[in-house]
């Protein structure tokens, strides 16, 4: 019998009415004959509300206690959905992480899953019941409650799907799939019928919010096929799976825009071995993710180094860099609080030359200046002035994926 894991996000269980609708959907899917496991997020807004409560009581709430608090959101929605399923005469049983022995490390607020014991899930499935699992939470080896990081109910679902060797993991959300670009910015954006794990990883890393990054990594590692779909409207959604030959026919699958980056320049750095390590060591130690780095060709033994950091980390990064600048005798530290990073993503780039050049030509034709460039096998990213970010995104989308462009569109 096929095993299907269905995950419902916060908006999908955001009200009593929505929970009723989800229960109907689960009942229908079960009537179709599959063995179903359901994973739920907290009701929309609930996790934020819980974090805010803690912050009213302490400026530095203890991470262990914060996890005890925020893990309750998923407990509520799991119980409510189970109650409704029983009302529809669907046999069901809710599970919290400790009941499933979903064991993580002890990094509160961002724990990594170490093991899942499938015994109770399998027993529930064998007895014809639908397990409803609270997402986002785990326990460490001492039995402390942990959470897996914001948005990580997706990760719970993929981990269960991998453990149970499920046939598919369906992620139900408030959009009907993965789009070629943010439809709020690009009016011609279209739903993709399918996308590879690698492309989805790049897009999630570049700010596409539809799937949580780590859940895509886990799905790729265990080859769990994903489908992203709306719980509000019927539709095929977007399939995320291994790369297929035909995927390479398309140069660009998506265009992303990240407006939450800042740029820091360290000027007049002496050009000698070990300096980059001195500069980026403390930033890495502080857990700040540096995304793009350029080092200008040195003149008279000195050079400039420019890099980007998430805007939320700008203040901390500047504090660290000012210290380093003093130590190494750099002539100055400059920064730009808001820059835009625009990227094109597509597995077709592996086999087609000239994609980056075409991207630069498109931006030139809009008179948009490129400040930084970074590439990977299936991605080209540029940093531009923040005020041109949306324009750049639209121009690139029209050029590579515009009406009649060669995307892998859905219906
Ligand atoms: N409720 C958690 C959050 O808001 C987990 C999730 O929604 O996936 O981050
Ligand atoms: Mg979510």
Would you identify the regions where 5 or more consecutive residues have pLDDT less than 50?
none
Strand order across the biggest sheet?
Answer: 3-6-2-1-9-11-12-10
CATH topological fold name of the largest domain? Carbamate kinase
CATH architecture of the largest domain, by name, is 3-Layer(aba) Sandwich
- Strand % is 25-35%
Distance between the termini: 29 Å
Could you state the CATH homologous superfamily of the largest domain?
Answer: Acetylglutamate kinase-like
Q: What is the average of the pLDDT values? A: 94
- Could you tell me which ligands this complex binds, including any ions or cofactors? aspartic acid, magnesium ion
From the alpha carbons, calculate the radius of gyration and give it in angstroms.
23 Å
Q: Under the CATH scheme, which class of the largest domain? A: Alpha Beta
Question: Shape, please?
Answer: globular
Number of strands: 18
């Amino acid at each position: 019998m096929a095993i299907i894991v269905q995950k419902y996000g916060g908006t999908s269980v955001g009200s009593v009415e929505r929970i009723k609708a989800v229960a109907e959907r689960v009942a229908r899917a079960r009537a179709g004959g599959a063995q179903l496991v359901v994973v739920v997020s907290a009701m929309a807004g609930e996790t934020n509300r819980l974090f805010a409560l803690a912050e009213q009581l302490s400026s530095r709430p203890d991470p262990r206690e914060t996890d005890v608090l925020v893990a309750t959101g998923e407990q509520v929605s799991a119980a409510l959905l189970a109650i409704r399923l029983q009302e529809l005469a669907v046999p069901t049983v809710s599970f919290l992480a400790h009941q499933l022995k979903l064991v993580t490390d002890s990094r509160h607020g961002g724990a990594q899953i170490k093991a899942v014991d499938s015994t109770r899930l399998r027993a529930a499935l064998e007895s014809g019941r639908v397990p409803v699992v609270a997402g986002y939470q785990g326990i460490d080896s001492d039995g402390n409650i942990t959470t897996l990081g914001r948005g990580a109910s997706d990760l719970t679902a993929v981990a269960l799907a991998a453990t149970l060797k499920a046939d598919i993991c369906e992620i139900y959300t408030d959009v009907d799939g993965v789009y070629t670009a943010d439809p709020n910015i690009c009016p011609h954006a279209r739903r993709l019928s399918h996308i590879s794990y690698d492309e989805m990883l790049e897009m999630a890393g570049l700010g596409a919010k539809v799937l949580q990054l780590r859940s895509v990594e886990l799905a790729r590692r265990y080859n769990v096929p994903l489908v992203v779909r709306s719980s509000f409207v019927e539709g095929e959604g977007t399939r995320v799976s291994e790369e297929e030959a035909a995927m390479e026919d398309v140069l660009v699958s998506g265009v992303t825009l990240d407006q939450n980056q800042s740029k820091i320049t360290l000027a007049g750095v002496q050009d000698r071995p070990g300096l980059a390590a001195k500069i980026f060591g403390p930033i890495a130690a502080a857990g700040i993710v540096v995304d793009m780095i350029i080092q200008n060709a040195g003149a008279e033994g000195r050079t400039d180094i420019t890099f980007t950091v998430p805007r939320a980390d700008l203040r901390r990064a500047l504090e660290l860099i000012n210290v380093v600048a003093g130590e190494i005798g750099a002539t100055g530290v400059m920064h730009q609080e808001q820059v835009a990073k625009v990227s094109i993503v597509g597995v077709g780039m592996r086999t087609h030359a000239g994609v980056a050049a075409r991207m630069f030509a498109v931006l030139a034709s809009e008179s948009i200046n490129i400040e930084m460039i970074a590439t990977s096998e299936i991605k080209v990213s540029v940093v531009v002035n923040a005020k041109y970010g949306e324009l750049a995104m639209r121009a690139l989308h029209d050029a590579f994926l515009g009406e009649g462009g060669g995307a892998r569109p859905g219906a």
